[in-house]
Amino acid sequence: MPSLDDVLTSISKIFEDQGIIPEELGIQLDRPETSFDAALIKKLAKTNTITHDETAKQTHLAFTGKEMDIFPYLHNYSYLDSPNREKEFKRRFILELPLTIISNNINYLAGKTIVDSNKKIECFTTTARSRRADNSQQAEISYIEEDHSAFIDFRKQLYTGDYLIFLKYFKQLKYLVLGIKETDSYKYNLDSIKGLTVAEKVIPTHVTITDTLVKENKNTYTNPEVSKIIKLIERNPNLILYGPPGTGKTYYVNQLKNYFDYSEMITFHQSYSYEQFVEGITAKIDSNTGQLHYVIENGIFLKMCEIARKNPTQKIALFIDEINRGNISKIFGELITLIEKSKRMGESEETSVTLPYSKMKFSVPSNLFIIGTMNTSDRSIALIDIALRRRFLFYEISPNFTYFENAHKKIQQTIKAVQVINKKIRFVIDKEHLIGNSYFFHLLNVDESKLDEEIKYVWLYQILPLLQEYFYTNPNEITDYLGNMVLDQDQRFSFSINYEISTDDLLNTIDAIASRD
């Protein structure tokens, strides 16, 4: 693990080669307390650049794991309602990070002459923390539509494989930013010191939030798919997102949480009951007497209704994962009628019932939203209870592989192979068992040196076991496609996975599958 001193030694060599004088920056590199208390060195992937033909749809820089710790952040949700709250998505905030870039570093990147006189360029970049498709967090840096033009011009000098260096000034919310060409990385030992490095003793940096640091951003995070879903729930507060496994249903749920003032999430299963969901009698032991007694206890649905009733101007949501795994009629009971939009509190056909245990008169608040997810490979949508179908809107989430259009060629080949297999699944089984895109999102952030092994892992331990299950009774329908990935191709039931396949052999098999398109 490199120390901050190791990093600053390399920075000193960069300064010397590019004619950057530390004193002109007001720092002494041999004393961290007068220079920098953290450094982040990142080798740029293709999706991190905004240069020429290498431009990807993603224009910001994504930092994950420990890399995020060098940046302060605002979460990109739940800060301020839109003035037209009934029709628009909540507005977002982004944070401006003050930056210093150096004219000679730009000259170096552009292939121009290093000059004696160096100029400091004060500018800023923008950041917020968001959720990734796999529900992990990331710091997004540099929204080009919001950044200072000087930093955008600086980024245009950086190409895939080059290094971007953030040096955080000691106890200050301010950064010196440098770029180094990939061909020169060995001179400064960058590959061995990349990542986040901090001072041995971390002293907190106090940040004062003012309107010069925080900017409102109305469009950076607006996902067109999420916007469609929001329009639907504004028409009907009951919605089910359904689709094959791995299509991003949970991702959309997490995005939708940002729209509501308060939400809870539960998961239905075969033993889930009315008593857990609505209300029931529970045995409890009196802590003073030790006697067993029975009390009526509200379930999650009644609790959420109570929150909605006490906060009538807020939007409250109950998310139900795997809603089709439970016995809907048994769980909802008489409430299946009350959740209908027109039967809710304050609506034209407001309806109330007397609950069986508490004998309380009850109706459902109009500001409570019920959003479920449904994996169609477990149960066809055609089998859903008619009463449920009539009261819920259904929105299909299908596999979407457009996210990978600018990915590494090996990832693109994997996606092409999956699309070929999906055509086979659609023909032999149905569209409800297609392989989704979520299995592959993490590949976008894997270092190129580890990409082959990670692709192999996804196929051997995620995709092939899924195909084993799908084609259990007719393995011959798919084994012809899978080549050396499988053993015992002529088995009557299922097939065996070839866990000993070499990485090269597996990648060649993927290419062969992709070529069948």
- Supply the helix-strand structural class: alpha/beta
CATH architectural grouping of the largest domain = Beta Barrel
Helical proportion, percent range: 25-40%
Mean of residue pLDDT?
84
Major sheet size, sense and barrel closure = 9 strands, mixed
Detailed description of the structure:
α12 (409-428) packs parallel to α13 and α12 (409-428) crosses α15. Strands 1, 2, 3, 4, 5, 6, 7, 8 and 9 form a nine-stranded mixed sheet that branches. Strands 11-14-17-10-18 form a five-stranded parallel sheet. The protein has three domains: 4-217, At1g16640 B3 domain, CATH 2.40.330; 224-396, P-loop containing nucleotide triphosphate hydrolases (Rossmann fold); 402-514, no CATH class. It starts with a helix and ends with a helix. The radius of gyration is 28 Å and the shape is globular. It has helices at residues 4-17, 103-110, 149-155, 190-193, 224-235, 249-257, 274-277, 300-310, 328-332, 335-338, 386-391, 409-428, 448-470, 476-482, 503-514; strands at residues 36-43, 61-63, 92-102, 120-131, 137-141, 163-169, 175-180, 195-198, 214-217, 238-243, 262-267, 279-285, 292-298, 316-321, 353-354, 361-362, 368-375, 393-396, 486-487, 496-497. It has 517 residues and is an alpha/beta fold. A hairpin with an 8-residue loop joins β19 (486-487) and β20. Mean pLDDT is 84; it is low at 52-56, 77-91 and 216-221. It has 15 helices and 20 strands.
Any descriptors?
globular; Rossmann fold; 9-stranded mixed sheet; 15 helices; 20 strands; 5-stranded parallel sheet; alpha/beta; 517 residues; At1g16640 B3 domain; 3 domains
